[in-house]
From TrEMBL:
Protein name: Fe-S cluster assembly ATPase SufC
Superkingdom to which the source organism belongs: Bacteria
Domain spans labelled ABC transporter: 4-249
Transmembrane intervals: none
GN (gene name): sufC
Alphabetized InterPro entries for the sequence: AAA+_ATPase, ABC_transporter-like_ATP-bd, FeS-cluster_ATPase_SufC, P-loop_NTPase
NCBIfam families, per database record: sufC
Keyword Nucleotide-binding: yes
Amino acid sequence: MSVLEIKDLHVSVETEQGTKQILKGVDLVVKTGEIHAIMGPNGSGKSTLAYTIAGHPKYTVDSGSITLDGEDVLAMTVDARARAGLFLAMQYPVEIPGVAVTNFLRTAKTAIDGEAPSIRTWGKDVKASMKNLRMDSSFAERNVNEGFSGGEKKRHEILQLELLKPKFAVLDETDSGLDVDALKIVSEGVNRAKANTDLGLLLITHYTRILRYITPDFVHVFVDGRVAEEGGPELADRLENEGYDRFLTDVAEEE
Ligand code: ADP
Ligand code: MG
Ligand code: MG
């Protein structure tokens, strides 16, 4: 079992108006095999947490720690984080012109494992995963994210998840912009990855919709850069009915 541990994390960004504190003391422990839903209103800092775990240079960690099995993740380069077993699906995936999906996946797999995947099994694995995700085989020859529809981008993320086999994955609004069929296919892929590799998952979502297909073990509600409430899957049901108003009122009263 592996553990990803976030302790009293404070993160800020430089804006034109000065330094803006976004995360104000986040604590979170995720073990392999667990699914944690990170929910919360827009602007509460969910994506900032994802970017900080991934090592995005724009986000400054002012204090606190992130460790993976006791190793300091914040001291690692972005590449080292991937090799250590962290996977981040960006809310807005970048285009990589001139690089075909098949080459991208193979290069990423080689970089993460430290050796090229076996030619014999790799091709089969890619085909099988693509088939599972109902992706046409021609997709493998397209350039990464170039002209991908929203649904294609999400499937490509899950394809990476299945093939790269990380210990921990952070999926940021993987459900946004998906129709019900695509949502089901993507959710099945996540559940398969969890079943096959004992994946630990941080599932960031504004809406409870995806949680009908991926059952979280824990739900954490972000408000104003902190975890305001935690619970089991029943908390997601409550949010579905009540929304985030209750939390937002609390914040307003504090100020
Ligand atoms: P969420 O994902 O929960 O919607 P974000 O982490 O994207 O929240 O944003 C949290 C807050 O920090 C918002 O007020 C947002 O405008 C601000 N913020 C995030 N990233 C940046 C940035 N790069 N520059 C300036 N402000 C940012
Ligand atoms: Mg947002
Ligand atoms: Mg976000």
